[in-house]
Amino acid sequence: MNDELRVIISANIKKYRKKMKITQSQLAEQIGKTVEMVCQLENNIASTKLSTLETIAHVFGIEPYQLLLPHEYPDFETLPPELTDLMLEIQEQPKEFLEALTQLLKYCNNNHNI
Predict the structure, then answer these.
(1) What is the number of structural domains in the chain?
(2) In this structure, is residue 73 part of a structural domain?
(3) What does the pLDDT look like over 32-83, one tens digit per residue?
(4) pTM attached to this predicted model
């Protein structure tokens, strides 16, 4: 895992834990790890398996990919309802559709059309 991704994951674990108002000890208990491990994850001292990140995401009530998003991305629940509905609909589309949509958005962004 690269350093930049570890920093993002660490910040997100801390952000969501504080948002849920649970302690490191409570999170550790819920995911079956030590409080030291949670502390190391939050402070970017250690990395962990994908399965542990999935468990952490489950405790937070989020999708695992949300732990990988840089801070500048909005939380899913803060988006307007129509955008949330659209994102959920898009997630169910075939891979080819998502790739084409991604290319279109990149093109529009590079040409300042959005």
Answers:
(1) 2
(2) no
(3) 999 999 999 999 998 899 999 999 999 999 989 889 888 665 566 666 778 7
(4) 0.63
